[in-house]
Specification:
heterodimer, A: about 300 residues, alpha+beta, Ubiquitin-like (UB roll), Alpha-Beta Plaits, three-stranded antiparallel β-sheet, about 20% helix, B: about 625 residues, alpha/beta, Glutaredoxin, Rossmann fold, 5 domains, five-stranded mixed β-sheet, 25 helices, 19 strands, globular
Chain lengths: ~300, ~625
Amino acid sequence: MANVTFTIDGQKVTVPSDYNIIEAAKTVGIDIPALCYDPNLEVVGACRLCLVEIEGSRKLQTSCSTKVKEGMVVHTESEKVVKLRKEILQLLLDNHPNDCLTCQKAGECLLQRYAYRYDIKFREHDGARRPNLVDTSSPYILKDDSKCILCGKCVRTCNQVLDRKVLSFGGRGFDTRIVADANFSLEESTCVSCNRCVTVCPVGALVDKRLLGKTRVWDGEIKGVKCKACDYGCNFEVLSKKGKNIAVRAKAPSEGRPLCLKGRLTTELMYLDEPETPYKKEDGKFQEATWKEALGLEGVFEKILSDENDKK
Amino acid sequence: MITIQELNEIKQKTLENMKLRLQEDSGKGLHGKHVLICGGPGCHSSNAEGIKKAFKEKIKEKGLDKEIKVSLAGCFGLCETGPNVEIYPDGIFYAHIKIEDIDEIVENHLCKGKIVERLLYEGSLKDGKIKQVSEVDFYNKQKKIALRNCGIIDYESIDEYIALDGYQALAKVVMEMTQQEVIDIVKASNLRGRGGAGFPTGRKWETAYEYKANKKYVICNADEGDPGAFMDRSILEGDPHSVLEAMAIAGYAIGSDQGYIYVRAEYPIAVRRLQIAIAQAKEKGLLGKNIFGTDFSFDIELRLGAGAFVCGEGTALMESIEGRRGMPRTKIYRTAHRGLWQKPTIINNVETFANVPAIIQNGVEWFKNIGTEDSPGTKVFALGGKIKNTGLIEVPMGVTLREIIFDIGGGIPNGKKFKAVQTGGPSGGCIPEEHLDTPVDFGSLGRLGSIMGSGGMIVLDEDDCMVDIARFFLDFTVEESCGKCVPCREGTKRMLEILERITKGEGTPEDIDRLESLAETITNGSLCGLGQTAANPVTSTLKYFRDEYEAHVYEKRCPAGSCQSLLEFFITEDCIGCTKCARNCPVSCISGKVKERHVIDTEKCIKCGTCMEVCPTGAVIKK
């Protein structure tokens, strides 16, 4: 891949020619805000926060979808760009509940981070808001539509796995929502609780329900581990507080790693001091299960034990 | 497979039968006549089929069915006066025809040659003289290219299309020209996209032609969605073959063998006529394998849209054809490089395509002599709103708005005063009287803060409130936003909320500033054309009619007397005390004795306007 040299915020940068501006910016420590961009997902250009000014281009361009070109001159924080970003963030906050105090995502939320960075605040208004629809049907995922900013990352990551494709957009315009299958609850839907959607959600719209109220990012320690349930070796994090491992959460899948519930439960069982009861979906209903059932080890487990006993 | 000789044979044979209509032959005796009934959208829904049937029956009864041909044709344009009937070779235009009128026309006009004056279109009767249809004011300033066959040929007859040089351009292209030569002609003609943006068609084709790929696609965008627009619909319904022929030409030029027409399912008549036309063209070998015995093969399929306005956006349309949710794609590649199924794709609007065969047939010079240098050719407009001649027109680019509205459109009805004209639908803007002499072309309308758009033209008079017009179009955009990008999804909603507040008399001075700031964000920040132009109705009315916004905000007054919440009904001294208003008021808020002036209790009044309607002396006014 040939290299190109371009200028960004006054710095000359040389990167491979297939880089987007947003990736190239990162190489020199320039963080262009973006809510819908994820290097592992298809580029959609929906949030419009990453718009930048390119000299010679009449319109602002999204840096997630624009490839760098030789000699290009980019401004990522020009007056025009910043004004637009502030207004977009304000539009998002105007339609977002003021719940950062108790939100599970606080401290990691991208909307929170950018609102702070650009000094945008919640404000009173009597206009319409997203309906306060919260799906609590799944023991693994909490889906809160009122917090959703419709970046669509969850839909894209869910659709990367051929036999999942559970999430999609429903409705239109201001009433657009993320729906599971034909607007079913997560329990009724074909959702397999892999939590891929949770790992990419930039806000508190999709959160890991088994983490709720236990710890937030600044509260304790976080240690990365690899799942040992299968050869993919998906990445997980073990969260601990006061020396006790209290929760496990999936990390964003990359390089074709699928994430799955069995892997997550296996990791929980391996690392947690007091793992919570596992649940299994049967005929569209979540049921409490034993660990053997949840991990599909019934029969196998006994066989292994008796085999070991025989050898003794 | 058809040969050029066979095509010419059909042409000669059919043309012989169409001469009366083309007024090239004065008819064989008194009775040789053609009765054309408008089958356009408006007339069709006013029972054009029934009228055709009645004519046929009556003519048969008179034993004239061998000499008089009755057929339905595409839109005549003057929807205001429908159902319309034309009689050739006399060139007589009858308007507002009802089934009951048919006996009289057949008895007097067709049998005895006596024109039925009472049924004539009023514009064709001047100073006791009867004008031919081509000479009436509505038609004589028009120039028809895209609509050249509409209203002349029977839309279900491929032979009649062939008779008027149909498929000659395709024959010429595939048998005599190279791909580059076709592209060069389209480029040289400077035909610009009639869907609204005005992108040069030839350049689009060339980009797709130059990009190597094993499969390429031609798409016809027939997802016409602007409120009040029916240009594309009329072409599809009145002359479907012109679009098919042009798509095949485009296919040859870029090296594609597959075309799709994306037409909205709400156009069932257009869909049916297209299906008939495609089947006819395939049967004759004008579509399909080895067209005119060459290596060139081209097939066309229909794809029906479910009615989302945003699917008129090229990439959203492609997503929809591919079976996904109709949301615009972010522009990473040009669609001419990677479009439908990631293959090079050209997408042109119906009207653009309809121009192509005419350009190939008549040459670049002919085309460039019509219209302006920057925007050659013609443009079809759908005239609507407060205008006498509601309907469909095609004019050379460069005519002024004044000519369109007053000369062709007949001006404003009921002696009202012209206020503004809204062009370009929800993406367009309002143009006030001071700019009426602006020539209509892509550049000029853009400079006024509006756009050419696909050709909707809504005329507004003194009774229309400009804030409310902006609100109406924003309401449409909010409804039709796909919800993908933040500025359009969230921003247009907030703008609409502000406009609703202002029209209710609850607006504040900050609201006007906020509108301007939001307009800038939505325009500069949105992903696709829908969002980028969504604020135009607001910015253009703020530019030309700011005083109306301010009257609403500062004085809580609607100068046009249109915003209900800001009105008060009032009974003047002209009241004769007839009690009619009091008796009809649904909330009993009018009091007064017989033969004395009545009074409205404005606290109780729900502003329904009934009192004003029923008052015999016009004593009830809005303040």
